[in-house]
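Reviewer 2 asked us to include a model.

Predict the structure of this chain.
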Amino acid sequence: MLQLDTIDIKIVAILKENSKLSYKEIADKIGLSTTPTYERIKRLEKNKVILQYTILENKTLLHKGMKIYCHVSLKSHHLDSIELFENQIIKLEEVVQCQHIAGDMDYLLFLEVKDMDAYQIFLRSKLASIPNIANVQSSFVMKSLKN
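Predicted model (structure tokens):
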């Protein structure tokens, strides 16, 4: 198993903050030269510590400014019913995350939509068309303190 040292952890934190930095800029921040920094980053990628590089987007400009958590419970917990729900829910573009959870509800969805009208359309035309849903409870994000 790969052992990460403090420098590896610093590299991951730096890249998480800004993945567009050059190898030299990262090297300067961690106190190594460019070549060992490059080799460490490549090792972190090869060993799947770093899975991908992403961007942060302006959600409002992309019409995804409203964030919603939906708790969904299913009527039936037969394997076929669960698989049908999961196969359909992951295809919906508004669903950013879907977690199968323990507790009173079965799934926690994180949605991003333009506004309340878009959420209502999502509920009526997409979520309601998935069979086996017993209950949906929604919570609307008012302010994000930490992403």
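The longest strand covers residues 66-74. The chain is about 35% helix and 20% strand. We have added this to the supplementary material.
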